[in-house]
């Protein structure tokens, strides 16, 4: 396995525990999002300068890196809210529509027409997602605030991935992460202050969960994923992130006793097969050059 693919795998595993930590409910979704970014920034800041990894980019890329922070902060805040407003399943499914938005965005803004294997893999992966959640889920789907926030989360996520791809072509990962986290922390601090959220007074368990989110789900996960984005197609990375839902289900079964059933196992296999299709170098359909 080459380094970008290994980094992608580590990143996906690291981020898969995040919905479980959010569902513990020790803090609100908004304040959880703020501390995920702020603690990660405080930890990363001395390390970046100690190891001399900060390379000041041009003004354009400082602004784009900051924009990534706002987009990612918006995604996490909206997704956390969607989880609380509906269910983890609905929120995860809707935010994971992001490969579609990434594919469309790559074509419109970067003139990067995704390979036919991407669209085939996306279709197969979504069939897997449908099998995982079951047809009853779609029958009972509520088009409420939770639904809207889930969709919006996927849009923010896609915009982040596409913008990060552009920035990481010119800026190293530690510098990008530092600017990204700083902008995200400031943005989320303002959002929480306007929402009247309390910034302190949490239990010891709550603080432990917030630190784990920052170190594992943010720093480790997104260092790995940023490296993968830097060296791989954004469309391929976004589709690979769908496997997060399957891994989250397995981890929830192992650690918080959530039920796992045949649908989840079968759907997970189909989903992973769909992702694998995008890594096949030759087109699956004749007549396509990409």
TrEMBL record:
Source organism, top-level taxon: Bacteria
SUPFAM superfamilies tied to this protein: Multidrug resistance efflux transporter EmrE (SSF103481)
Transmembrane segments: 7-26, 32-49, 61-79, 91-110, 117-139, 145-163, 175-195, 207-225, 237-256, 262-280
Keywords: Membrane, Transmembrane, Transmembrane helix
GO cellular component: membrane
Domain EamA: 6-133, 145-279
The protein's name: Drug/metabolite transporter (DMT)-like permease
Annotated source species: Mesonia hippocampi
Lineage: Bacteria, Pseudomonadati, Bacteroidota, Flavobacteriia, Flavobacteriales
